[in-house]
Amino acid sequence: MFVQRILLLLVVITTPLRAEEVALPEEMATRPIDQVVEALVAAGLERNLGLAAQSLDLQRAEQALNEARAALRPQLDLNARYSVSRGGRDIDVPLSDLLNPVYSTLNQLLQQQGQSAQFPTLEQTSFSLLREHEQDTRLTLRQLLYAPAARANVDRFAAEREAFEAELERFRQQLARDIRIAYYGWSQARAALAIVDASLMVLAENVRVSQALYDNGKVTRDQVLRAEAERLELEQEQSRSRAQVAIARRYLNFLLDWPLDQQIAASRQQQPLPLLSLPSLESLEQQTL
Questions:
Q1: For residues 168 and 55, is the Cβ–Cβ distance under 8 A?
Q2: Ramachandran assignment for 17, one of left (phi > 0), alpha (psi -120 to 50 degrees), beta (any other)
Q3: Share of the chain above pLDDT 90, in %
Q4: Domain region containing 194
Q5: Considering the domain boundaries, does residue 249 fall inside one?
Q6: How far apart are CA 49 and CA 227, in angstroms?
């Protein structure tokens, strides 16, 4: 039994992970795993709707702060208007009817005294209600001299902007952390499934060898049944491992805002495993005695 465990460990170490279809470009799978993870983090930060909503809140807070600061600065406004009108109502002013008789009487009195007439004869006067050409230009300069409420608004909006900025950074870091954890969790589930698959190969061979030994009368029936039970138990573990891989992939796709069944890029560059020092054959034989 101890020898079988050693053989199982050797098979697990030398068995590579299964290849899967990738969602990122094919060359991404040839990169180290840390680069694949960072590429997924960048994709998640770009597509996440919650992060986009946080960014909009920060932009609104920044705009409110700029408006509050603008209220404290000098404001120079230039307003110009030029209008042209045609037609309209004419208003008659009866100045001639009112003043000409008076002027005529005064001129007669002057002439009787031997002086020349000094008061003219007025014509009928009228003017249009609308001016034909009108131009109005105004330059206005405004500056707040004492506005404690405006300065308080600047402080309040600055604090709100800092709060939104901190919340956005916290959300970004949390999302990046969740994506990294989800990817490594999915990779761990895949590695566990690969271990189970490799173990099934060993147990299938163990069942075959046990059955052959039983047919030749070398072992009893219970050893064959034990080997078969171990294989069936590991098949159940294989089903659970496959379910865990699917759940981990769907959770990672959820964080990346991808379809839940989307396949994910898996780095094929595995980290080198540490060397395993195995006991010598003589020591194993002594332990079995």
A1: yes
A2: beta
A3: 12
A4: 2-69+152-270
A5: yes
A6: 52
Question: Cα separation of 271 and 33, whole Å?
Answer: 9
Q: Which amino acid is at 26?
A: E
Please count the other Cβ atoms lying within 10 Å of the Cβ belonging to residue 190.
Answer: 21
What is the C-alpha separation between 137 and 139, in angstroms, rounded?
7
Coil vs helix vs strand at 105: helix
Is 276 domain-assigned? no
State how far the Cα of 237 lies from the Cα of 241, in Å rounded to an integer.
6
Q: What is the 3-state secondary structure (H, E, C) of 139-180?
A: EEEECCCCCHHHHHHHHHHHHHHHHHHHHHHHHHHHHHHHHH
Average pLDDT over residues 88-114: 80
| Distance from C-alpha of 230 to C-alpha of 209, rounded to nearest angstrom | 14
Q: What is the pLDDT of residue 182?
A: 92
Tokens coding 111: 């002439």
pLDDT tens-digit series, residues 145-173: 887 888 888 888 899 889 989 998 998 99
- Under a CB-based contact definition with an 8 Å cutoff, are residues 8 and 202 in contact? yes
> Are residues 54 and 115 located together in one domain of the fold?
no
91 plus 186 within the same structural domain: no
Q: Could you tell me if residue 122 is inside a domain?
A: yes
Domains identified in the chain, total number: 2
Long-range pairs of 90-96 with CB within 8 A, sequence gap ≥ 24: 90/126, 90/127, 90/128, 90/129, 91/126, 91/127, 91/128, 91/129, 92/124, 92/125, 92/126, 93/125, 93/126, 93/127, 94/124, 95/122, 95/124, 95/125, 96/121, 96/122, 96/123, 96/124, 96/125
